[in-house]
Amino acid sequence: MSGTTIAIFRLPTARATEVGHIRVVRDRHGGMYVEGSKVVEAATSGDFLLLTLASGQVYYVKASDYTHLQAPPPHAPRRSRGR
């Protein structure tokens, strides 16, 4: 599974300071994982999401970045078999 990195923030405010990046992976069943730990809750806080992981860690991320990752990837068209 390959992942995408998104920015994390210290506080969910308009002038939030970016403090780093985390790797987010979506598995084939739609489950979201951050740094190898399953996301168990994504609570809204303004323009941000408060991600709570199974490991107990908590991250603030921009809601638009996270929801963009949740969208299913477009399926490649199937090749027809010549008969």
The assembly state of the depicted protein chains is: single chain
What fraction, in percent, of the residue positions are helical?
Answer: under 10%
Radius of gyration: 16 Å
Low-confidence stretches: none
Shape: elongated
What's the order of the H and E elements? EEEEEEH
Count the E strands.
Answer: 6
Strand order in the largest sheet = 1-2-3-4-5-6
The main β sheet shows up as:
6 strands, antiparallel
Q: Mean of residue pLDDT?
A: 86
The number of helical elements comes to 1
List keywords for this structure.
six-stranded antiparallel β-sheet, 10% helix
Set down the secondary structure blueprint.
Layout: E1 4-9, E2 18-26, E3 32-34, E4 37-45, E5 48-53, E6 58-62, H1 63-70
Antiparallel strand pairs: 1-2, 2-3, 3-4, 4-5, 5-6
Any overview of this molecule?
- This protein is mainly beta.
- It contains 1 helix and 6 strands; from the N terminus they run E-E-E-E-E-E-H.
- Strands 1-2-3-4-5-6 form a 6-stranded antiparallel beta sheet, covered by helices on one side.
- A hairpin with a 5-residue loop joins strand 2 (18-26) and strand 3 (32-34).
- The N and C termini lie far apart (35 Å).
- The model has no long low-confidence stretch (mean pLDDT 86).
In brief, what are we looking at here?
The chain has 83 residues and is mainly beta. The protein has one helix spanning 63-70, and strands at 4-9, 18-26, 32-34, 37-45, 48-53, 58-62. Helices cover 10% and strands 46% of the residues.
